[in-house]
Amino acid sequence: MNLTSDLKTTAGYLLMLVLVPLVIVLGLTFINRNSKERLASRYGARAVVWLGGLGVIFHELSHLIMALLFGHRINDFRLLITNVPDDGGTLGYVNHSWNKGSYYQFLGNALIGTAPVYGCAAVLILLTRWLVPAIYWWGLQTIGSALNYPLTATVPASAPLHWGAVIIWVLLSVNITICGFDLSNADLKNALPAAVTLYILVGVILFVLILLGKAALIQHALIALLAAFGMVMAVAICWSLLVNLVVRL
Questions:
Q1: Residue 27: how many CB atoms within 10 A of its CB?
Q2: Model pLDDT for residues 125-157, shown as the tens digit of each residue
Q3: pLDDT tops 60 at residue 1
């Protein structure tokens, strides 16, 4: 049994699971905040609602569902506020409280604060797989090959695209991307204390599983998960950069 090797493997899996998605999401947050500020200053806050309202709904819905799963009390919420003044204001919110004596609810803060990342990514994965399956499977295979871990596709990349579905996919995915992945400062602040504890806990669980000989199983699950996540994040980054370029014109 090589403990040093197992520790290095655990550290690698933690980087794949946490650090890479975090860097991508922070990048998306920076780009999309800039796009929304420019859009609101030029066309008013209502333009942000039209361009990213669906993303706001999924963003707040992700917070809401995760808060309920961790037993938090929902004091008030608004999934989308359309009458935002042009000089600033929130587009949606989930006001929740938790029992300070509950370790389970404390750990939940890490996932509640970052829930829009998982929620919006899941929605984009489902939309892509449903509307443009050829692009979905091509993306998975491309990322799998880059990671030297081939993934089997159920729909060939050469399958015909239905352009009506492609247009709907583009419009929906752009709308979700612009406001869905923008984690607020409050989201990050609330998530950070619990995130450190959760990160350590996940690391311990991964280490134990690796000691039990489950490294190959973990690797397969992580790569399959990160391939799907990476594919929709690549799409999200493209839309974010494109919108940011357009609003600068």
A1: 16
A2: 999 999 998 888 888 888 777 777 777 767 666
A3: no
Token digits of residue 113: 């604060």
User: Can you tell me the distance from the alpha carbon of 210 to that of 159, in angstroms, rounded to the nearest whole number?
Assistant: 39
Domain boundaries, the chain: 3-248
CA-to-CA distance for 133 and 18, rounded, in angstroms?
Answer: 27
- Which residue, 50, 45, 66, is CA-closest to 117? 66
Check: CB of residue 145 under 8 Å from CB of residue 103.
no
Q: How far is CA 146 from the centre of its chain?
A: 21
The two three-digit tokens of residue 45, written as one number? 């806050």
- Classified as helix, coil or strand, 30 is helix
Give the model's pLDDT for residue 220. Answer: 78
| Cβ-Cβ contacts under 8 Å for 51 (sequence gap 6 or more) | 39, 174, 175, 178, 179, 243
Alpha-carbon gap, residue 248 to 136, rounded angstroms: 30
- The strand pairing partners of 73, in sequence order, are 97
Instruction: Return the exposure string of 123-148: e unless at least 16 CB atoms fall within 10 Å of the residue's CB, then b.
Output: bbbebbbebbbbbbbbbbbbbbeebe
Chain centroid offset of residue 83 CA: 27
Contact predicate 90/79, CB 8 Å: no
CA dist., res. 232 & res. 132, Å (int): 12
CA dihedral sign of residues 243, 115, 168, 89: negative
Nearest to 24 by CA among 176, 223, 236: 236
> pLDDT tens-digit profile of 45-94?
888 888 899 999 999 999 999 999 999 999 999 999 988 776 667 889 99
